[in-house]
């Protein structure tokens, strides 16, 4: 699949949101596009998915089975997670029974919490994101387009998504995703490109993110501090746990899991005093 000299303007004569972008997407690869909010990442994905026509340029070789995770589901979604996946499965050509079975399997794998028969609008951001991911995977897509797929996910589901990316790569699926934190995609992507002022540049994989992070925490006063440290040590991506001279807990975390670990320690009620790139001792 190839995006050839793609440019997009929102208004005639207005500035280019995307400016002469050429991007090759091979089967069995994961391509990540990083950039700040408003950089045009979502517009690029919509062009790749065929949801928006470029102002100039073309998209060639787009597979016919596409899974798409938007930046967010509609805020007033009245369908339940179960009903939505059943509907989307039938839209994608699955029989009713197959859509129901496959939807349930995906929700179980992604670890959805809450009532799957309640309106999606009542779910948390993370659980709504799990529903969006499930609908994209329903029909066995050959092209997966994911707009900041890790947004709102807990540590467990963060790792499930990493595992899914490896499986899709092995199955020859074309994966194009966006993220605003390079460290999140460093271990999963075959190529990382940065979008800035409408232009796309490839980043050297070795420079996309540090190998790990040193995270210093303050934890609530508890009787069994060793149990707290053991729980932190069990988090996916945590390489080591120790204490500094101020009795603050210090973690060494892999770059590919850093965001998920931070989200989880905050959820557990810990305070984050410092995050530094690279491995080594703590201050």
How would you describe the overall organization of this protein?
- The protein is of the alpha/beta class and 283 residues long.
- The protein folds into two domains: 2-207, P-loop containing nucleotide triphosphate hydrolases (Rossmann fold, 3-Layer(aba) Sandwich); 212-277, Alpha-Beta Plaits (2-Layer Sandwich), CATH 3.30.70.
- The protein is 31% helix and 28% strand.
- The protein contains eight helices and 13 strands.
- It has helices at residues 41-49, 81-91, 96-110, 125-137, 155-170, 182-185, 225-233, 258-267, and strands at residues 2-9, 16-24, 29-34, 56-60, 66-69, 143-147, 174-179, 191-196, 199-203, 212-218, 238-243, 249-254, 271-277.
- The strands form three sheets. It has a six-stranded mixed β-sheet, sandwiched between helices. It has a four-stranded antiparallel β-sheet with strand order 11-12-10-13, covered by helices on one side.
- Strand 6, helix 5 and strand 7 form a beta-alpha-beta unit.
- The model has no long low-confidence stretch (mean pLDDT 87).
